[in-house]
Specification:
The chain is an all-alpha fold and about 475 residues long. It contains 19 helices and no strands.
């Protein structure tokens, strides 16, 4: 039994950081009421966490190589716990957003190191078991998050969705300290601080500009400068990565159609499948007056369907070309999001079921092969960087999706009665998510089909640790 303590330590941390992506969704109405937060404040509660994960994941992977995966993981756990406490005691929306960003920093350190630790701890058949168990726990986190968040918010308060992390983090820290051996260190590994800084500024500025425009209009004095700053920072990122001796993201990787398609698919998955969840949570609770727990349970069909489709059809689709599994799966997700436009003024929560089931089916088809296909498209020695980039794309897709769809929702509802405004805004947002998924799926299909070499070789255990979340 002792040999599986490292697996338990890694799974605890991963479960905690991934569950915090979704656990907050069903608590948003209570947070808004308690802290007086508007839609833009709620968007930042989600995006503060997602942006920190996206911006720092690759750099913290490099830091873990330089200073050791174990100390990086322990620091990440400690920071995540402290930030969770800060979230739980936050007295204003701005403090909560800042604490959520700190959570994201800790989460990035954890996500960048868990599989490295498992890879170094286990060999042979045990390694395969460890990776499979870690993947199952990570996959379950999204579904558990909405239900657990609803239960804690209902029975205690929204603050307990963060307080619950404290005992989990304490146990994970204690287990990690004794279960993992010393980590190898690469003192020669350089850290791309300039790349990290320019990427962070670009992602944050663009997200801020979109949210600001939704709140105050596109003519707002703060929106345009933010968007311009984001574009300039993105250009600077390209220049920095092109000239860096140790780039955070080696740009030659993007010359391969298959890897570029994988990044687009990862971002499109989060945008089309999950970015509408905050708005749907508000509809379920503020307009249908469901309790947080019932709202969480009503959102469960998506995760359950994804789990079942992945389990039943995963092996059957294992050797199918990625343009069909990943590109086609993304189109299915987009079609599911468009079905959410069935919601009207007289709808009950059951109106979401057809859309959720189709979205879940698409996720179950495309998510399992996503990282394996991406890794097969790059040289083996760059597999760790490639996997980190895929995770970064997923978090960035979520952050931008929440910003864009929130802005669409707000602009459509202007000048209408509250009920019509909410439903019309929600329908336009879900349609936007659906069309984005379908178009991204078509682009991904074309890129995979054009790839010069096969990118769907089966990869069970990557040659280097890779983040599979």
């Amino acid at each position: 039994m002792r040999k599986w303590l490292p697996l338990l330590a890694a799974c605890l941390g991963s479960f905690m950081l991934l569950i915090d992506v979704t656990i907050v969704n069903v608590a948003l109405p209570d947070i808004a009421a308690d802290l007086g937060a508007g839609l833009s404040g709620l968007q930042w509660v989600i995006d503060g966490y997602a942006l920190a994960l996206a911006a720092l994941l690759l750099m913290l992977g490099a830091l873990a190589d330089r200073f050791g995966a174990k100390p990086t993981y322990l620091i990440g756990l400690a920071l995540f716990a402290a930030a969770s406490l800060g979230c739980g005691v936050a007295g204003s929306a701005s403090v909560l957003v800042a604490a959520r960003a700190a959570q994201g920093i800790g989460g990035a350190a954890m996500l960048a190191t868990t599989l490295s630790l498992l890879h170094a701890t286990y060999t042979g058949r045990d390694r395969g078991i460890a990776f499979s168990a870690w993947g199952a726990v990570s996959g379950a986190a999204a579904g558990v998050g909405v239900v657990l968040g609803g239960a804690l918010t209902d029975l205690l308060s929204w603050r307990w969705i963060f307080f619950v992390n404290l005992p989990i983090a304490a146990l994970a820290i204690a287990l990690s300290a004794i279960a993992f051996g010393p980590s190898p260190r690469r003192a020669d590994r350089r850290v791309d601080l300039a790349g990290m800084l320019s990427f962070t500024v670009a992602a944050t500025a663009v997200t801020y500009g979109i949210i600001r425009a939704g709140e105050h209009g596109w003519g707002d004095r703060g929106a345009a400068p933010a968007l311009i700053t984001g574009v300039v920072a993105l250009a600077a990122f390209v220049v920095v990565e092109s000239s860096s001796a140790a780039p955070m993201l080696p740009l030659p990787l993007l010359r391969g159609a298959a890897f570029t398609a994988t990044l687009i698919a990862a971002a499109g998955l989060s945008f089309a499948a999950f970015s509408t969840s905050p708005l749907l949570s508000l509809w379920l609770q503020q307009y249908l007056h469901l309790t947080p727990l019932r709202a969480g349970l009503s959102m469960l069909p998506l995760s359950v369907c994804a789990f079942l489709v992945s389990g039943v059809f995963g092996r059957l689709l294992h050797d199918v070309a990625p343009q069909w599994t990943i590109g086609g799966g993304l189109v299915v997700i987009g079609a599911g999001s468009t079905l959410l436009t069935l919601i009207d003024l007289g709808s009950s929560w059951t109106a979401t079921i057809p859309g959720y089931l189709l979205i879940g089916a698409g996720v179950g088809i495309m998510a399992p092969p996503l990282v394996a296909v991406g890794l097969a498209a790059v040289p083996p020695h760059q597999s760790g960087t490639a996997a980190g980039a895929i995770n970064t794309a997923r978090q960035l897709g979520l952050a931008l999706g929440v910003a864009v769809l929130g802005t669409v929702f707000r602009n459509v509802g202007t000048g209408k009665t509250p009920g019509h405004a909410f439903v019309d805004g929600l329908n336009t947002a879900t349609m936007t998510a659906g069309v984005t998924g379908i178009l991204a799926g078509a682009l991904v299909f074309a890129l995979y089909a054009r790839a010069s070499r096969p990118t769907h070789a089966p990869v069970i255990t990557p040659p280097e640790p890779a983040q599979l979340a």
